[in-house]
């Protein structure tokens, strides 16, 4: 089926078009620059930006795919989780389009969409299941066990405070680096010694593991960096702090993901979310997966960050499996990952 996907859960306005598992278009407009002076995504600003960007993004996607709206078989839209106002813009637009074009509409889960991105990989092989999925972005840090993309997604753990990307952004601020902090810290860390400063690893001690084996925590790490910056004063070595911080995040993310693969006997790990761009996260994930005999899958970065194509791909899978369209639904900012379709 030819499916249009609309994604507006955070600061990317994404419109994608797929035919089954074939990627035809993936157009993204980001309001990231508008959030830079606030040091993080401002919900009101994001919602307004979606409203302005949605129509041109839709038109660009149709042009890129070389199709017209009347060729479409279905529409899929991110129903949650995400920023309520931002989600509402996408859901409202999708409903209007579906009514005007008399098309079936599928409200889908953003996090499961990140897993669905793997359907679009170039080699054409199908998603191999079950798989563990680690999704790390500015708003999420979640470890999933996916047994079936449309009917069996389990949340193993998630952050109990800041998301990993959020931690990168906050620590960058402490170091005087501009937003978004992830790429800046990644670059600064390349010149630093990851061993020079040993920062804490959140929720990795025996007493934490009993209850939070697959959960993450980055606020203690952020506080440790803040304390270090304060004490270092003039002698602050930004590269060493960036490297030590990055090492802590990459260590915990990959250790917990690999542990989940081992515990559940699942020899596959899929990564998603903007933090996947991080050089050390990729490197450590690659090394540890190889050592553990786990097949690691990292979609191309344009499909790892928020985009409409992954939403279209998940929608196309729902259509292909014969799931009925979503009944009346709204934006659900806290939609649990177990609910693949609203
Ligand atoms: P959501 O959480 O809803 O998916 P988001 O906009 O926060 O939305 P993305 O756009 O996927 O998610 O990711 C943005 C985050 O990724 C930012 O926090 C950014 O700092 C981080 N990031 C980007 N590049 C890197 C990098 N090289 N290293 C670490 N973090 C990075
Ligand atoms: Mg974003
Ligand atoms: Fe996302």
UniProtKB/TrEMBL annotation:
Q: Which GO terms describe its biological process?
A: tRNA threonylcarbamoyladenosine modification
> Which Pfam families does its entry note?
TsaD (PF00814)
Report residues binding Fe cation: 110, 114, 306
Q: What is the UniProt remark on how the cofactor binds and its stoichiometry?
A: Binds 1 Fe(2+) ion per subunit.
EC id? 2.3.1.234
List residues binding substrate: 135-139, 169, 182, 186, 278
User: What InterPro entries does this protein's entry cite?
Assistant: ATPase_NBD (IPR043129), Gcp-like_dom (IPR000905), KAE1/TsaD (IPR017861), Peptidase_M22_CS (IPR017860), TsaD (IPR022450)
Is Disulfide bond among the key words of this record? Answer: no
The UniProt keyword set, sorted, is:
Acyltransferase, Cytoplasm, Iron, Metal-binding, Transferase, tRNA processing
Q: Which residues form the Gcp-like domain?
A: 22-312
Q: Using the UniProt record, name the top-level EC class of this enzyme in a single word.
A: transferase
User: What GO cellular component term, any one, is given?
Assistant: cytoplasm
Keyword Transcription regulation assigned to the entry: answer is no
> In Gene Ontology terms, what is one molecular function of this protein?
iron ion binding
Alphabetical list of HAMAP family matching this protein: TsaD (MF_01445)
Q: Which NCBIfam families match?
A: gcp_kae1 (TIGR00329), T6A_TsaD_YgjD (TIGR03723)
Query: What's this chain's function?
Result: Required for the formation of a threonylcarbamoyl group on adenosine at position 37 (t(6)A37) in tRNAs that read codons beginning with adenine. Is involved in the transfer of the threonylcarbamoyl moiety of threonylcarbamoyl-AMP (TC-AMP) to the N6 group of A37, together with TsaE and TsaB. TsaD likely plays a direct catalytic role in this reaction.
- In Swiss-Prot or TrEMBL terms, this protein is called tRNA N6-adenosine threonylcarbamoyltransferase
Record the organism: Pseudolysinimonas yzui
Quick one: which gene encodes this?
A: tsaD
């Amino acid at each position: 089926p030819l499916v249009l996907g609309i994604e507006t859960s955070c600061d990317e306005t994404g419109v994608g078009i797929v035919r089954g598992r074939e990627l035809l278009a993936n157009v993204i407009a980001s309001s990231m620059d508008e959030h830079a002076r606030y040091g993080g995504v401002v919900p009101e600003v994001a919602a307004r930006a979606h409203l302005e960007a949605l129509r041109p993004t839709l038109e660009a996607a149709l042009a890129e795919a070389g199709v017209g709206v009347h060729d479409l078989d279905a529409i899929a839209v991110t129903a949650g989780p995400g920023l309520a106002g931002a989600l509402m813009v996408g859901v409202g637009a999708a409903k209007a389009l579906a009514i005007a074009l008399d098309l079936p509409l599928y409200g889908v889960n953003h996090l499961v969409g990140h897993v669905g991105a793997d359907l679009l990989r170039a080699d054409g092989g199908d998603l191999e299941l079950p798989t563990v999925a680690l999704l790390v972005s500015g708003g999420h840090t979640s470890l999933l066990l996916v047994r079936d993309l449309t009917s069996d997604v389990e949340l193993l753990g998630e952050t109990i405070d800041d998301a990993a990307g959020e931690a990168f952004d906050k620590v960058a601020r402490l170091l005087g680096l501009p937003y978004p902090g992830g790429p800046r810290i990644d670059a600064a860390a390349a010149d630093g010694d990851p061993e020079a400063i040993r920062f804490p690893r959140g929720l990795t001690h025996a007493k934490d593991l009993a209850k939070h084996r697959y959960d993450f925590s980055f606020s203690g790490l952020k506080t440790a960096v803040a304390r270090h910056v304060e004490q270092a004063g003039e002698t602050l070595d930004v590269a060493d702090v960036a490297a030590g911080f990055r090492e802590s995040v990459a260590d915990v993310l990959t250790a917990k993901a690999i542990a989940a693969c081992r515990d559940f006997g699942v020899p596959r790990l899929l990564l998603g979310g903007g933090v996947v761009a991080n050089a050390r996260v990729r490197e450590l994930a690659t090394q540890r997966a190889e050592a553990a005999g786990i097949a690691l899958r990292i979609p191309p970065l344009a499909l790892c960050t928020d985009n409409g194509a992954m939403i279209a791909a998940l929608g196309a899978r729902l259509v292909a499996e014969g799931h009925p369209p979503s009944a009346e639904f709204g934006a659900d900012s806290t939609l649990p990952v177990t609910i693949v379709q609203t």
